Amino acid sequence: MGKGTTKEMTSGSTMKLILGFAVPLLMGMLFQQVYGLVDTIIVGRFLGVSALAAVGATGSINFLIIGFCQGICNGFALPIAQRFGARDYDGLRKYVGNSAVLSILFGGTLTVLTVVFCRDILLLMRTPSDIIDLSYQYIVVIFAGIPAIILYNILSAYLRSLGDSITPVVFLILAAVLNVGLDLLFIVVFHWGVFGAAFATVLAQAVSGILCLILIIWKFEILHLKREDWNLDSFYVKYLLIMGLPMGLQYSITAIGSVILQTAVNSLGSAAVAAMTAGSRISMFVVCPFDALGSTMATFGGQNVGAGKLDRLGQGLRSAVILGAVYSAIILLVLIVFGQNLVYLFVDPKETVVVAQARQFLITNAVFYVPLALVNIVRFLIQGMGFSGFAVFAGVFEMIARALVGLAFVPLFGYSAACFASPLAWIFADCFLIPAFFHCRKKLMQAGSDQM
Length: 452
Prior knowledge:
The chain is an all-alpha fold. The chain has 18 helices and no strands.
């Protein structure tokens, strides 16, 4: 039996550590986005604009439910990062066992509820009648695959909490390649339509989760649990829920605003939905570095708080912000020059209105990528520091901004207003998060002084 690689982020250059952790993590996220990109490209090019709009119309509800799953998994891993930083390996394994049981319970409950009420949700979102059946065929399969999604996310979160951001990437690369092959097989050869795209995504995610599980059993002795570690303990369950639920709710509350916005865009017709779908898919891909920085800062914050090295929190924040700002400037230039060509991956150039609106969405968002970088960096750092509840309030600010645009401005100004929904949400969240970071750091320092 081998030994898995772990990494402590409690000493050394913060810039070097953050880059070293984030780059492999970024590769994993990019390949994870390949799932969505390949689905969308193949659906748009082989099945047409109606099928593309059908998949896009499910985007916000997909984000609401799957985002909640990802959030609780990431939150459950934060106490593990803290125990790893403190070198309390018995406590670490207890948190692993309790979080695994909670993940199974959450996963089973969400799967049943979302599958049963799937069509009702689409009707409430005013999904256009010409695409609602296709939307249902796609999203019900994604919801049925929630256990596979949770399996990968919780196991990869465990590995990242130990400082290993490379292993999950390897499995995601393999899964992404498998996803491409299955998409082509199910859609082009078997003619399964949007159902085939969703099934390929879930199957590929299940493979990456199973591979993570096999490697943990084989190489990561620190994660090998005793029978008593699986017993739910109120102390550990309470702290896991305190850390996990706010992170899950953060995604879901944010997504509520997205659902309201998506409902408003749905009312503009299938062409507008298709344009925002194409623009959103490209945007989700190019903002992966911000997501990678966020996940990195959660582990960085957790380990350094666990080790009592609070002075490194500000150092890490500065390093991450510099990286985020530099990338924001570069990707804005790239999208201005090549944005329209990227849209052609999803939509036939003859669809001139859809192409123009998708490019408008891309550029409008890219101008505000620095505020988005701050949202990810600061929010996840605060969560790693042990203040997950603040993430919920940040999500509320984002929800308010998107809901305001969806309810008030889209009916008045149409598609152009929808393009400004996310930038406004990021700015609202930053106005809360930046002061919140300094407040949380002050509380930790005061607590440390009181213990001396």
